[in-house]
C-alpha cells in the first residue's frame, strides 16, 4: 500500500495532468479540501434531423406504371373473390344489414366506405354511352372509377355527371358522382350533408 506522501504526490501529479491550465497554488488549495471534483466538459452532441421518407411524385408513379393493370390481369373472374370480401366488409360495417336497419344510416356508412370490390351500375349519365355499364370497381380516383365488366373490359368511368347504383343484400344505394369527387382516403373523413333533391 502507498504511503500518505506517495498518495499526495500521485494525486498532485494526476491533477496537474488532468487540469494543466490550473496553477500549483490552485491545485494545493483543492487538495486541502476533503472532496475533489474533477472538471469535465462533455462534448455537445449535435442532433441529427430525421429525414422523412419522401413518396413518389405523380410523374414517377406514371413512369413506374404503379396504377396500371396488366392486360392479362383484366379478367372479371379474377376479381370476384375481391367482391365477396367487399360484401363481407360491408355487412360487418353495417352490423349485418338487417331488414329493420334504417336506410339513411346504411347510406351514411356506404358514403364513407371503401368501394374497391363493389359491383356498381351506371344508371344515369349525361353521356348515354355510359348508361348500363356494370362491373367491379378496381380503382377509385378523385374523378374516375376504373371498372372491370363481365366482358373482361376495363372501363374508365368519370364520376362527374354520372349516377351509380350499388346493390347488396337487397339494399340499393345511389351514388351521385358529381358530389363524390373525392379520393377514398378523403371520403372517410368527410361529413356528407343530406339533400332532398340532387340533379346531375
TrEMBL record:
Belongs to the eukaryotic/archaeal RNase P protein component 1 family. Gene3D superfamilies: Ribonuclease P/MRP, subunit p29 (2.30.30.210). It is found in: Nucleus, Nucleolus. This is Ribonuclease P protein subunit p29. It comes from Pitta sordida. SMART domains: POP4. InterPro entries: RNase_P/MRP_Rpp29-subunit, RNase_P/MRP_Rpp29_sf, Rof/RNase_P-like, Rpp29/RNP1. Its main location: nucleus. Keywords: Nucleus, Phosphoprotein, tRNA processing. Component of nuclear RNase P and RNase MRP ribonucleoproteins. RNase P consists of a catalytic RNA moiety and 10 different protein chains; POP1, POP4, POP5, POP7, RPP14, RPP21, RPP25, RPP30, RPP38 and RPP40. Within the RNase P complex, POP1, POP7 and RPP25 form the 'finger' subcomplex, POP5, RPP14, RPP40 and homodimeric RPP30 form the 'palm' subcomplex, and RPP21, POP4 and RPP38 form the 'wrist' subcomplex. All subunits of the RNase P complex interact with the catalytic RNA. Several subunits of RNase P are also part of the RNase MRP complex. Component of ribonuclease P, a ribonucleoprotein complex that generates mature tRNA molecules by cleaving their 5'-ends. GO terms for molecular function: ribonuclease P RNA binding. The keyword Metal-binding does not apply. GO terms for biological process: rRNA processing; tRNA 5'-leader removal. The keyword Phosphoprotein applies. GO terms for cellular component: nucleolus; ribonuclease MRP complex; ribonuclease P complex. It holds the Pfam family RNase_P-MRP_p29.
Amino acid at each position: 500500500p502507498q504511503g500518505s506522501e506517495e498518495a499526495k504526490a500521485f494525486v498532485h501529479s494526476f491533477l496537474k495532468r488532468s487540469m494543466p491550465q490550473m496553477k500549483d497554488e490552485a491545485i494545493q488549495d483543492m487538495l486541502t479540501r476533503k472532496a475533489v471534483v474533477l472538471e469535465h466538459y462533455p462534448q455537445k452532441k449535435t442532433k441529427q434531423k430525421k429525414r422523412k421518407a419522401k413518396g413518389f411524385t405523380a410523374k414517377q408513379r406514371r413512369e413506374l406504371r404503379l396504377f396500371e393493370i396488366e392486360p392479362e390481369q383484366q379478367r372479371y373472374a379474377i376479381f370476384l373473390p375481391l367482391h365477396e370480401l367487399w360484401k363481407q366488409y360491408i355487412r360487418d360495417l353495417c352490423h349485418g344489414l338487417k331488414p329493420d336497419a334504417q336506410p339513411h344510416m346504411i347510406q351514411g356508412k356506404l358514403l364513407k366506405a371503401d368501394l374497391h370490390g363493389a359491383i356498381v351500375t351506371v344508371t344515369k349519365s349525361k353521356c348515354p354511352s355510359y348508361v348500363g355499364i356494370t362491373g367491379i370497381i378496381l380503382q377509385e380516383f378523385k374523378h374516375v372509377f376504373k371498372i372491370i365488366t363481365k366482358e373482361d373490359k376495363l372501363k374508365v368511368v368519370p364520376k362527374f355527371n354520372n349516377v351509380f347504383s350499388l346493390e347488396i343484400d337487397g339494399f340499393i344505394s345511389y351514388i351521385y358522382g358529381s358530389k363524390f369527387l373525392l379520393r377514398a382516403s378523403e371520403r372517410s373523413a368527410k361529413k356528407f350533408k343530406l339533400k332532398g333533391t340532387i340533379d346531375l
